[in-house]
Known about the structure:
- The chain is of the alpha/beta class.
- It has 14 helices and 15 strands.
- The chain folds into 2 domains: 17-44 and 286-387, Aspartate Aminotransferase, domain 1 (Alpha-Beta Complex), CATH 3.90.1150.10; 60-283, Type I PLP-dependent aspartate aminotransferase-like (Major domain) (Aspartate Aminotransferase, domain 2, 3-Layer(aba) Sandwich), CATH 3.40.640.10.
- The protein is 40% helix and 15% strand.
Amino acid sequence: MKYNFNERIDRENTSCIKYDLRDEVFGKKDVIPMWVADMDFKTPSFIIEALRKRLDHEIMGYTFRTDSFYTSIAGWLSRRHKWDVMKEWITFSPGIVPALNLAVMAFTRPGDKVIVQQPVYFPFFPAVENHNRVLVNNPLSYENGRYEMDFEDLLRKIDKRVKMIMLCSPHNPTGNVWKYRDLEKLAEICIENQILILSDEIHSDLIFRGSKHIPLASLGPEVSDITVTCVSPSKAFNLAGLSTSAVITSNRELKKKYDEMLESVHVDGGNIFGFVALEAAYDKGEEWLDALMGYLEENLNFLVSYLAENIPLIKPVIPEATYLIWLDCHEMGLSDKELSRFMIHEAGLGLSDGLIFGPEGSGFQRMNIGCPRAVLENALHRLKNAVVQRFAQ
Ligand SMILES: Cc1ncc(COP(=O)(O)O)c(C=O)c1O
């Protein structure tokens, strides 16, 4: 194996949220941390080398984004996702969550409605509500272990005050990769009702074999004109601590509004290491990313067979993307409080409670399998033992 994803790296005492905040979050220091969405794998060497080279210059003064920042992003999107974007469409954000907040502030007014599709990545909620906009839920439907968009419900929820929909594509926590027909239908509804789509595509590089991510804005000029897309190498290349993302729109007016908001709070500068890492990831990352996805697929297969054979009470929703697995725990018959307690104190696992993703997440837990196989094996053994103990009688 050219890349050693089995290597176990001690992340303790590195200001690492996932490991070093376990006591604060779970009240238990020794849970196996499978919550925050970063991976326990080393950042690939071509990124480390690029960062080291920049560090060797030994001056870290003010910087700006050169052409190469934009061409790296455009090159990656064209090669990996068949989406051709122009340099002028791309701008910056110090992270995707900041971009969601800035976009809400830039494109909507207090009192406007913003639609989200729960269960969904929970920072979507404050990105709307902290700015006095109204959160409207268009829940995904869940049948036979599969999530779908509910367009009938969406149409019922739309009125003149709805100005934006926040799309999670691919979708966290369900792992859905939206199909062409989903995106086309959504776009058609939004065009007809003059609703802007904020498309969070942070997970778009973590696609399992057999699925294909379609950037929403690549559907055509009419769709592109109402879409603002957020991308970043942070998930796929494990760079979240560098706070560097891109916001893309072909609509000049929207870009201008976003840039004005970005500059008004003075966070357009970014940081030099983020730029260097992004360029290295996008210029050199394809082979490593393919290897990563191969490893994650094996982790996923291991998890799915293990649960089926040993813990059939817990059913994974099979993801088409991401290393975040949405576990349906309804058959355990526990309340959400009991389920959370069970995972922490009986199984010794630090997972994400389903409820934080919205009421539709009741009865679910989200497990991060972006870790060496041995860690996953250990976690599943712990889970099996705890389930046997509790449900034996
Ligand atoms: C859908 C989604 N958007 C955004 C983020 C975080 O983005 P950032 O760390 O760039 O703010 C995550 C992290 O898990 C995510 O799942």
